[in-house]
């Protein structure tokens, strides 16, 4: 099943709800099937890692966990505001995303 997402890897987003509300970050990965995203510096979890091989170090590490894509909003590069993303088809048949506030394409 192919689903369209309003954010892609590399997009700058802001979290609009939850414990990390107001934090900004870059989207590291997108899982369209589960409708989740991993955002840099958001939803940090502590993980206890055990050494598996000789010479490997274990310890406590912090890493980003997935959050639902509906909890993030794209930040426009031109106007700098959180915005909804629209889609349009250009004359040459190319599909592009655009800012619904200023009309700039991404």
Automatic annotation (TrEMBL):
Keyword match DNA-binding: no
SUPFAM superfamilies for the chain: Translation proteins SH3-like domain
Keywords: Ribonucleoprotein, Ribosomal protein, RNA-binding, rRNA-binding
Domain KOW: 6-33
A Gene Ontology cellular-component term: ribonucleoprotein complex
InterPro entries: KOW (IPR005824), Rib_uL2_dom2 (IPR014722), Ribosomal_uL24 (IPR003256), Ribosomal_uL24_C (IPR057264), Ribosomal_uL24_CS (IPR005825), Ribosomal_uL24_KOW (IPR041988), Translation_prot_SH3-like_sf (IPR008991)
GO terms assigned for molecular function: rRNA binding; structural constituent of ribosome
Known partners and oligomeric status: Part of the 50S ribosomal subunit.
Name of the protein: Large ribosomal subunit protein uL24
Species annotation: Monoglobus pectinilyticus
Underlying gene: rplX
């Amino acid at each position: 099943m192919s689903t369209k997402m309003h954010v892609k890897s590399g997009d700058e987003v802001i979290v609009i709800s939850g414990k990390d509300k107001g934090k900004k970050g870059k989207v590291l990965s997108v899982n369209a099937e589960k409708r989740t995203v991993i955002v840099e510096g958001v939803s940090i979890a502590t993980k206890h890692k055990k050494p598996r091989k000789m010479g490997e170090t274990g310890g406590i590490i912090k890493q980003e966990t997935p959050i639902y894509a509906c909890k993030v909003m794209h930040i426009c590069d031109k106007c700098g505001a959180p915005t909804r993303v629209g889609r349009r088809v250009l004359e040459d048949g190319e599909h592009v995303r655009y800012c619904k506030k200023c009309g700039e394409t991404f």
